[in-house]
Design a protein that fits this description.
The protein has 446 residues and is of the alpha+beta class. The chain contains eleven helices and seven strands. It starts with a helix and ends with a helix.
Length: 446
Protein backbone atom coordinates (compact mmCIF):
# COMPACT_ATOMS: atom_id res chain seq x y z
CA UNK A 1 0.00 0.00 0.00
CA UNK A 2 2.97 2.30 -0.31
CA UNK A 3 1.98 3.71 -3.67
CA UNK A 4 -1.48 4.91 -2.59
CA UNK A 5 -0.03 6.66 0.43
CA UNK A 6 2.78 8.33 -1.51
CA UNK A 7 0.48 9.45 -4.30
CA UNK A 8 -2.18 10.81 -1.96
CA UNK A 9 0.49 12.72 -0.08
CA UNK A 10 1.75 14.20 -3.35
CA UNK A 11 -1.74 15.46 -4.13
CA UNK A 12 -2.44 16.84 -0.69
CA UNK A 13 0.96 18.51 -0.22
CA UNK A 14 -0.16 21.90 -1.60
CA UNK A 15 -3.36 21.65 0.43
CA UNK A 16 -1.46 20.99 3.65
CA UNK A 17 1.06 23.74 2.95
CA UNK A 18 -1.48 26.42 2.13
CA UNK A 19 -3.72 25.58 5.08
CA UNK A 20 -1.02 25.26 7.72
CA UNK A 21 -2.29 28.32 9.51
CA UNK A 22 -5.89 27.08 9.46
CA UNK A 23 -5.59 23.64 11.01
CA UNK A 24 -8.57 22.48 13.10
CA UNK A 25 -8.53 23.98 16.59
CA UNK A 26 -8.17 21.78 19.67
CA UNK A 27 -11.15 19.82 20.88
CA UNK A 28 -13.82 22.17 22.18
CA UNK A 29 -16.63 21.70 24.62
CA UNK A 30 -20.01 20.67 23.21
CA UNK A 31 -21.43 24.16 23.70
CA UNK A 32 -18.50 26.15 22.30
CA UNK A 33 -18.51 27.14 18.59
CA UNK A 34 -16.29 25.11 16.30
CA UNK A 35 -15.12 27.04 13.23
CA UNK A 36 -14.44 24.95 10.12
CA UNK A 37 -13.29 26.39 6.80
CA UNK A 38 -13.55 24.95 3.31
CA UNK A 39 -9.85 24.07 3.35
CA UNK A 40 -10.33 22.12 6.58
CA UNK A 41 -13.31 20.29 5.07
CA UNK A 42 -11.12 19.29 2.14
CA UNK A 43 -8.50 17.94 4.55
CA UNK A 44 -11.14 15.91 6.38
CA UNK A 45 -12.40 14.46 3.09
CA UNK A 46 -8.90 13.45 2.03
CA UNK A 47 -8.51 11.47 5.25
CA UNK A 48 -11.99 9.97 5.59
CA UNK A 49 -13.94 10.02 2.32
CA UNK A 50 -14.96 6.47 1.36
CA UNK A 51 -14.67 7.11 -2.38
CA UNK A 52 -11.02 8.14 -2.02
CA UNK A 53 -10.24 5.14 0.19
CA UNK A 54 -11.69 2.80 -2.41
CA UNK A 55 -9.78 4.55 -5.19
CA UNK A 56 -6.50 4.20 -3.28
CA UNK A 57 -6.97 0.42 -3.10
CA UNK A 58 -6.59 0.25 -6.87
CA UNK A 59 -2.88 0.94 -6.48
CA UNK A 60 -2.33 -2.44 -4.86
CA UNK A 61 -4.48 -4.21 -7.45
CA UNK A 62 -2.52 -2.52 -10.24
CA UNK A 63 0.77 -3.54 -8.63
CA UNK A 64 -0.33 -7.17 -8.82
CA UNK A 65 -1.39 -6.75 -12.45
CA UNK A 66 1.97 -5.21 -13.35
CA UNK A 67 3.83 -8.11 -11.73
CA UNK A 68 1.68 -10.55 -13.70
CA UNK A 69 2.34 -8.73 -16.96
CA UNK A 70 6.10 -8.64 -16.34
CA UNK A 71 6.15 -12.40 -15.78
CA UNK A 72 6.46 -12.90 -19.55
CA UNK A 73 10.10 -11.79 -19.27
CA UNK A 74 11.13 -14.55 -16.86
CA UNK A 75 11.62 -18.28 -17.37
CA UNK A 76 9.27 -20.90 -15.98
CA UNK A 77 10.42 -23.89 -13.96
CA UNK A 78 8.19 -26.86 -13.16
CA UNK A 79 8.96 -30.01 -11.18
CA UNK A 80 7.27 -33.40 -10.81
CA UNK A 81 8.31 -36.21 -8.45
CA UNK A 82 7.73 -39.97 -8.66
CA UNK A 83 8.31 -42.47 -5.87
CA UNK A 84 9.17 -45.68 -7.74
CA UNK A 85 11.83 -45.37 -8.83
CA UNK A 86 12.57 -42.10 -6.99
CA UNK A 87 12.70 -39.66 -9.89
CA UNK A 88 12.34 -35.90 -10.16
CA UNK A 89 11.31 -34.47 -13.50
CA UNK A 90 12.23 -30.84 -14.09
CA UNK A 91 10.99 -28.70 -16.96
CA UNK A 92 12.62 -25.38 -17.78
CA UNK A 93 11.26 -23.00 -20.41
CA UNK A 94 12.36 -19.54 -21.50
CA UNK A 95 10.58 -17.62 -24.26
CA UNK A 96 13.00 -15.84 -26.57
CA UNK A 97 10.47 -14.24 -28.90
CA UNK A 98 6.79 -13.62 -28.36
CA UNK A 99 4.81 -10.90 -30.08
CA UNK A 100 3.04 -10.22 -26.77
CA UNK A 101 6.18 -9.23 -24.85
CA UNK A 102 6.37 -5.55 -25.73
CA UNK A 103 2.57 -4.99 -25.76
CA UNK A 104 2.34 -6.46 -22.26
CA UNK A 105 5.13 -4.21 -21.02
CA UNK A 106 3.35 -1.20 -22.52
CA UNK A 107 0.12 -2.30 -20.85
CA UNK A 108 1.93 -2.47 -17.50
CA UNK A 109 3.15 1.12 -17.88
CA UNK A 110 -0.29 2.28 -18.99
CA UNK A 111 -1.89 0.47 -16.04
CA UNK A 112 0.25 2.42 -13.58
CA UNK A 113 -0.59 5.65 -15.38
CA UNK A 114 -4.30 4.83 -15.41
CA UNK A 115 -4.52 4.17 -11.69
CA UNK A 116 -2.84 7.52 -10.98
CA UNK A 117 -5.21 9.31 -13.35
CA UNK A 118 -8.20 7.49 -11.88
CA UNK A 119 -7.20 8.45 -8.35
CA UNK A 120 -6.67 12.05 -9.37
CA UNK A 121 -10.08 12.11 -11.05
CA UNK A 122 -11.69 10.60 -7.94
CA UNK A 123 -9.84 13.24 -5.91
CA UNK A 124 -11.17 16.05 -8.12
CA UNK A 125 -14.70 14.63 -7.93
CA UNK A 126 -14.58 14.51 -4.14
CA UNK A 127 -13.22 18.07 -3.96
CA UNK A 128 -16.12 19.19 -6.15
CA UNK A 129 -18.62 17.31 -3.99
CA UNK A 130 -17.20 18.90 -0.85
CA UNK A 131 -17.40 22.37 -2.37
CA UNK A 132 -20.99 21.77 -3.46
CA UNK A 133 -21.98 20.51 -0.01
CA UNK A 134 -20.14 23.41 1.62
CA UNK A 135 -21.92 25.94 -0.61
CA UNK A 136 -25.29 24.29 0.03
CA UNK A 137 -24.70 24.51 3.77
CA UNK A 138 -23.66 28.16 3.62
CA UNK A 139 -26.76 29.01 1.57
CA UNK A 140 -29.05 27.06 3.92
CA UNK A 141 -27.58 28.85 6.93
CA UNK A 142 -28.05 32.22 5.22
CA UNK A 143 -31.66 31.27 4.53
CA UNK A 144 -32.17 30.52 8.22
CA UNK A 145 -30.76 33.94 9.11
CA UNK A 146 -33.09 35.66 6.63
CA UNK A 147 -36.20 34.00 8.03
CA UNK A 148 -35.09 34.50 11.62
CA UNK A 149 -34.70 38.25 11.07
CA UNK A 150 -37.96 38.34 9.15
CA UNK A 151 -39.80 36.47 11.92
CA UNK A 152 -38.31 38.75 14.59
CA UNK A 153 -39.46 41.86 12.73
CA UNK A 154 -42.93 40.43 12.22
CA UNK A 155 -43.12 39.60 15.93
CA UNK A 156 -42.14 43.18 16.80
CA UNK A 157 -44.71 44.47 14.31
CA UNK A 158 -47.37 42.34 15.99
CA UNK A 159 -46.47 43.70 19.43
CA UNK A 160 -46.57 47.24 18.07
CA UNK A 161 -49.94 46.60 16.40
CA UNK A 162 -51.34 45.18 19.63
CA UNK A 163 -50.29 48.30 21.50
CA UNK A 164 -51.84 50.51 18.82
CA UNK A 165 -55.05 48.47 19.01
CA UNK A 166 -55.21 48.91 22.76
CA UNK A 167 -54.73 52.63 22.22
CA UNK A 168 -57.59 52.58 19.72
CA UNK A 169 -55.44 53.60 16.76
CA UNK A 170 -55.83 50.44 14.63
CA UNK A 171 -58.53 47.84 14.18
CA UNK A 172 -58.42 44.26 15.42
CA UNK A 173 -58.20 42.81 11.89
CA UNK A 174 -54.88 44.62 11.46
CA UNK A 175 -53.52 42.83 14.53
CA UNK A 176 -54.84 39.50 13.24
CA UNK A 177 -53.25 39.99 9.80
CA UNK A 178 -49.87 40.82 11.30
CA UNK A 179 -50.19 37.92 13.74
CA UNK A 180 -50.82 35.49 10.85
CA UNK A 181 -47.75 36.81 9.06
CA UNK A 182 -45.67 36.38 12.23
CA UNK A 183 -46.83 32.77 12.64
CA UNK A 184 -46.07 31.97 8.99
CA UNK A 185 -42.65 33.57 9.42
CA UNK A 186 -41.82 31.26 12.34
CA UNK A 187 -43.02 28.29 10.32
CA UNK A 188 -40.79 29.31 7.41
CA UNK A 189 -37.88 29.71 9.83
CA UNK A 190 -38.42 26.16 11.10
CA UNK A 191 -38.44 24.82 7.52
CA UNK A 192 -35.24 26.71 6.75
CA UNK A 193 -33.64 25.26 9.89
CA UNK A 194 -34.60 21.77 8.72
CA UNK A 195 -32.99 22.37 5.33
CA UNK A 196 -29.84 23.58 7.06
CA UNK A 197 -29.72 20.42 9.18
CA UNK A 198 -30.07 18.30 6.04
CA UNK A 199 -27.30 20.26 4.34
CA UNK A 200 -25.00 19.62 7.30
CA UNK A 201 -25.80 15.90 7.18
CA UNK A 202 -25.02 15.84 3.44
CA UNK A 203 -21.71 17.57 4.16
CA UNK A 204 -20.92 14.96 6.84
CA UNK A 205 -21.61 12.21 4.31
CA UNK A 206 -19.25 13.52 1.66
CA UNK A 207 -16.57 14.25 4.27
CA UNK A 208 -16.81 10.73 5.67
CA UNK A 209 -16.83 12.11 9.21
CA UNK A 210 -19.45 13.80 11.38
CA UNK A 211 -18.75 17.42 12.19
CA UNK A 212 -19.37 18.59 15.79
CA UNK A 213 -22.95 19.71 16.52
CA UNK A 214 -21.65 23.19 17.31
CA UNK A 215 -19.84 23.53 13.97
CA UNK A 216 -19.75 26.96 12.35
CA UNK A 217 -18.64 27.07 8.74
CA UNK A 218 -16.43 30.04 7.96
CA UNK A 219 -16.89 31.42 4.46
CA UNK A 220 -19.24 33.38 2.26
CA UNK A 221 -21.01 32.87 -1.03
CA UNK A 222 -19.54 34.46 -4.13
CA UNK A 223 -20.39 38.01 -5.07
CA UNK A 224 -17.61 38.39 -7.69
CA UNK A 225 -17.36 36.45 -10.95
CA UNK A 226 -14.34 34.65 -12.42
CA UNK A 227 -12.36 36.87 -14.74
CA UNK A 228 -11.97 34.35 -17.59
CA UNK A 229 -15.31 33.52 -19.21
CA UNK A 230 -14.47 32.66 -22.84
CA UNK A 231 -16.19 29.29 -23.29
CA UNK A 232 -14.10 28.36 -26.34
CA UNK A 233 -10.77 28.98 -24.65
CA UNK A 234 -11.94 27.28 -21.47
CA UNK A 235 -13.04 24.19 -23.40
CA UNK A 236 -9.68 23.93 -25.15
CA UNK A 237 -7.96 24.26 -21.78
CA UNK A 238 -10.15 21.59 -20.21
CA UNK A 239 -9.45 19.10 -23.00
CA UNK A 240 -5.77 19.36 -22.09
CA UNK A 241 -6.21 19.02 -18.32
CA UNK A 242 -9.19 16.78 -17.54
CA UNK A 243 -8.02 13.66 -15.75
CA UNK A 244 -10.96 11.50 -16.81
CA UNK A 245 -10.30 12.35 -20.46
CA UNK A 246 -6.64 11.46 -20.11
CA UNK A 247 -7.58 8.27 -18.30
CA UNK A 248 -9.97 7.21 -21.07
CA UNK A 249 -7.35 7.96 -23.69
CA UNK A 250 -4.86 5.84 -21.73
CA UNK A 251 -7.41 3.02 -21.53
CA UNK A 252 -7.83 3.23 -25.29
CA UNK A 253 -4.08 2.89 -25.85
CA UNK A 254 -4.03 -0.02 -23.44
CA UNK A 255 -6.86 -1.68 -25.39
CA UNK A 256 -4.90 -1.36 -28.62
CA UNK A 257 -1.96 -3.12 -26.98
CA UNK A 258 -4.30 -5.77 -25.58
CA UNK A 259 -5.42 -6.59 -29.13
CA UNK A 260 -1.84 -7.50 -29.98
CA UNK A 261 -1.59 -9.63 -26.86
CA UNK A 262 -4.83 -11.45 -27.64
CA UNK A 263 -3.62 -12.21 -31.18
CA UNK A 264 -0.20 -13.50 -30.14
CA UNK A 265 -1.01 -17.08 -31.15
CA UNK A 266 -1.36 -15.96 -34.76
CA UNK A 267 2.43 -15.43 -34.81
CA UNK A 268 5.32 -17.82 -34.03
CA UNK A 269 6.68 -18.14 -30.51
CA UNK A 270 10.36 -19.06 -30.16
CA UNK A 271 12.06 -20.24 -26.98
CA UNK A 272 14.37 -22.67 -25.29
CA UNK A 273 13.26 -25.53 -23.05
CA UNK A 274 14.39 -28.67 -21.26
CA UNK A 275 12.46 -31.71 -20.14
CA UNK A 276 14.78 -33.98 -18.16
CA UNK A 277 14.84 -36.20 -15.12
CA UNK A 278 17.01 -36.45 -12.03
CA UNK A 279 17.07 -39.91 -10.44
CA UNK A 280 18.17 -40.40 -6.84
CA UNK A 281 20.93 -42.94 -5.86
CA UNK A 282 19.73 -46.53 -5.59
CA UNK A 283 19.51 -48.36 -2.27
CA UNK A 284 19.87 -51.78 -3.92
CA UNK A 285 23.00 -54.00 -4.03
CA UNK A 286 26.03 -53.03 -6.04
CA UNK A 287 26.32 -54.59 -9.44
CA UNK A 288 29.60 -55.95 -10.75
CA UNK A 289 31.80 -53.09 -11.72
CA UNK A 290 29.25 -50.67 -10.27
CA UNK A 291 29.60 -46.90 -10.22
CA UNK A 292 28.16 -43.97 -12.07
CA UNK A 293 27.37 -44.95 -15.63
CA UNK A 294 26.74 -42.13 -18.12
CA UNK A 295 25.59 -44.63 -20.71
CA UNK A 296 22.88 -46.06 -18.53
CA UNK A 297 19.33 -44.98 -19.19
CA UNK A 298 17.57 -43.16 -16.35
CA UNK A 299 14.53 -45.46 -16.47
CA UNK A 300 16.45 -48.72 -15.89
CA UNK A 301 15.70 -50.58 -12.63
CA UNK A 302 17.36 -48.92 -9.66
CA UNK A 303 18.80 -52.24 -8.40
CA UNK A 304 21.20 -52.36 -11.34
CA UNK A 305 23.34 -49.43 -10.18
CA UNK A 306 24.39 -47.64 -7.02
CA UNK A 307 24.24 -44.01 -8.18
CA UNK A 308 21.34 -42.21 -9.80
CA UNK A 309 21.46 -40.95 -13.37
CA UNK A 310 20.37 -37.60 -14.81
CA UNK A 311 19.56 -36.08 -18.16
CA UNK A 312 18.86 -32.39 -18.91
CA UNK A 313 18.68 -31.92 -22.66
CA UNK A 314 18.18 -28.31 -23.89
CA UNK A 315 16.43 -27.58 -27.13
CA UNK A 316 15.05 -24.65 -29.09
CA UNK A 317 11.44 -24.72 -30.06
CA UNK A 318 9.14 -22.72 -32.32
CA UNK A 319 5.35 -22.93 -32.27
CA UNK A 320 2.97 -21.38 -34.73
CA UNK A 321 -0.74 -21.94 -34.68
CA UNK A 322 -1.82 -22.23 -38.30
CA UNK A 323 -5.55 -22.79 -37.88
CA UNK A 324 -7.75 -22.30 -34.83
CA UNK A 325 -11.25 -22.61 -36.23
CA UNK A 326 -11.82 -18.85 -36.29
CA UNK A 327 -10.92 -18.14 -32.65
CA UNK A 328 -8.44 -15.38 -33.55
CA UNK A 329 -10.94 -13.81 -35.93
CA UNK A 330 -13.57 -13.70 -33.20
CA UNK A 331 -11.12 -12.15 -30.72
CA UNK A 332 -10.10 -9.52 -33.27
CA UNK A 333 -13.71 -8.55 -33.99
CA UNK A 334 -14.53 -8.36 -30.27
CA UNK A 335 -11.50 -6.23 -29.44
CA UNK A 336 -12.11 -3.89 -32.37
CA UNK A 337 -15.72 -3.44 -31.22
CA UNK A 338 -14.52 -2.48 -27.72
CA UNK A 339 -12.08 0.04 -29.16
CA UNK A 340 -14.83 1.53 -31.33
CA UNK A 341 -17.14 1.83 -28.30
CA UNK A 342 -14.40 3.62 -26.36
CA UNK A 343 -13.95 6.00 -29.29
CA UNK A 344 -17.63 6.86 -28.96
CA UNK A 345 -17.17 7.31 -25.19
CA UNK A 346 -14.25 9.67 -25.82
CA UNK A 347 -16.33 11.76 -28.20
CA UNK A 348 -19.21 11.88 -25.72
CA UNK A 349 -16.89 12.93 -22.89
CA UNK A 350 -15.37 15.72 -24.97
CA UNK A 351 -18.88 16.88 -25.87
CA UNK A 352 -20.05 16.73 -22.24
CA UNK A 353 -17.02 18.78 -21.13
CA UNK A 354 -17.97 21.47 -23.64
CA UNK A 355 -21.57 21.41 -22.40
CA UNK A 356 -20.50 21.65 -18.74
CA UNK A 357 -18.37 24.69 -19.47
CA UNK A 358 -21.00 26.41 -21.62
CA UNK A 359 -23.68 25.82 -18.98
CA UNK A 360 -21.47 27.10 -16.16
CA UNK A 361 -20.42 30.20 -18.11
CA UNK A 362 -24.03 30.96 -19.10
CA UNK A 363 -25.18 30.66 -15.47
CA UNK A 364 -22.36 32.90 -14.25
CA UNK A 365 -23.23 35.59 -16.81
CA UNK A 366 -26.93 35.51 -15.93
CA UNK A 367 -26.41 35.61 -12.17
CA UNK A 368 -23.81 38.34 -12.51
CA UNK A 369 -26.39 40.50 -14.27
CA UNK A 370 -28.97 39.65 -11.62
CA UNK A 371 -26.61 40.77 -8.88
CA UNK A 372 -25.88 44.01 -10.71
CA UNK A 373 -29.61 44.69 -10.98
CA UNK A 374 -30.19 43.91 -7.31
CA UNK A 375 -27.26 46.06 -6.24
CA UNK A 376 -28.82 48.97 -8.17
CA UNK A 377 -32.00 48.80 -6.10
CA UNK A 378 -32.59 50.56 -2.81
CA UNK A 379 -31.07 48.77 0.16
CA UNK A 380 -33.10 47.25 2.98
CA UNK A 381 -32.02 50.03 5.34
CA UNK A 382 -33.14 52.71 2.87
CA UNK A 383 -36.51 51.03 2.37
CA UNK A 384 -37.15 50.78 6.10
CA UNK A 385 -36.09 54.39 6.68
CA UNK A 386 -38.42 55.57 3.95
CA UNK A 387 -41.24 53.48 5.44
CA UNK A 388 -40.68 55.05 8.87
CA UNK A 389 -40.81 58.53 7.36
CA UNK A 390 -44.03 57.73 5.50
CA UNK A 391 -45.57 56.18 8.60
CA UNK A 392 -44.73 59.18 10.76
CA UNK A 393 -46.24 61.43 8.10
CA UNK A 394 -49.45 59.40 8.17
CA UNK A 395 -49.11 58.21 4.59
CA UNK A 396 -48.45 54.52 5.50
CA UNK A 397 -50.33 52.15 7.76
CA UNK A 398 -48.85 49.72 10.26
CA UNK A 399 -50.02 46.84 8.06
CA UNK A 400 -48.25 48.38 5.07
CA UNK A 401 -45.00 48.35 7.00
CA UNK A 402 -45.52 44.64 7.73
CA UNK A 403 -46.07 43.97 4.03
CA UNK A 404 -42.94 45.97 3.23
CA UNK A 405 -40.96 43.34 5.12
CA UNK A 406 -42.29 40.78 2.62
CA UNK A 407 -40.84 42.83 -0.23
CA UNK A 408 -37.53 43.20 1.58
CA UNK A 409 -37.42 39.44 2.26
CA UNK A 410 -38.10 38.71 -1.40
CA UNK A 411 -35.28 41.02 -2.43
CA UNK A 412 -32.92 39.37 0.06
CA UNK A 413 -33.90 35.92 -1.21
CA UNK A 414 -33.26 36.97 -4.80
CA UNK A 415 -29.79 38.19 -3.86
CA UNK A 416 -29.08 35.00 -1.89
CA UNK A 417 -30.28 32.85 -4.80
CA UNK A 418 -28.06 34.73 -7.26
CA UNK A 419 -25.01 34.37 -5.01
CA UNK A 420 -25.81 30.69 -4.41
CA UNK A 421 -26.17 29.89 -8.11
CA UNK A 422 -23.07 31.92 -8.91
CA UNK A 423 -21.06 29.94 -6.35
CA UNK A 424 -22.30 26.59 -7.67
CA UNK A 425 -21.61 27.64 -11.26
CA UNK A 426 -18.08 28.75 -10.38
CA UNK A 427 -17.45 25.41 -8.66
CA UNK A 428 -18.88 23.55 -11.67
CA UNK A 429 -16.64 25.56 -14.00
CA UNK A 430 -13.56 24.71 -11.94
CA UNK A 431 -14.57 21.05 -11.97
CA UNK A 432 -15.11 21.08 -15.73
CA UNK A 433 -11.63 22.58 -16.13
CA UNK A 434 -10.04 20.06 -13.77
CA UNK A 435 -9.03 22.86 -11.39
CA UNK A 436 -10.85 21.73 -8.26
CA UNK A 437 -7.79 21.28 -6.08
CA UNK A 438 -5.88 24.35 -7.29
CA UNK A 439 -8.91 26.62 -7.06
CA UNK A 440 -10.16 25.35 -3.73
CA UNK A 441 -6.74 25.84 -2.15
CA UNK A 442 -5.01 28.72 -3.93
CA UNK A 443 -8.17 30.73 -4.60
CA UNK A 444 -10.68 29.58 -1.95
CA UNK A 445 -14.22 29.93 -3.23
CA UNK A 446 -16.47 30.58 -1.50
Amino acid sequence: MMKPVVFAAWLVFPLAGLTRGTEPPPASTPDSPHDVSLAQCLQIAVAHNAQLRLASMQFLATKGRVISLHAILFPTLQAQGLTTPPTLFVQFQQTLYNRAIFPQLRISRLSEEQVRLNYRQAFDDVMFQVRQAFINTLAARAQVDLYRNYADRQAKAMDSAQQLFEAGEVQKNTVFSIQVKANLARHSQADAQLQYTRALLALDTVLGQDLPPSVHLTGELLVDTPAKLDAGELTAEALQKRQDLQSLESVQMSAEQQVRVDLQNAFPIVGISSDGAFQAPSVGPLSAGGGYDLEQNYDEPSTERQSGNSQLPLSFYATWQIFDGGNMKGIRISDQAQIASRDVALQELRHSISEEINSAVATILVERDNLRTLNGQASEAELRHLADVEYEAGRMRQLDKAYLEDDILQQQQQRLTAEYRLSLAAAALDHALGDDLETAVARPRP
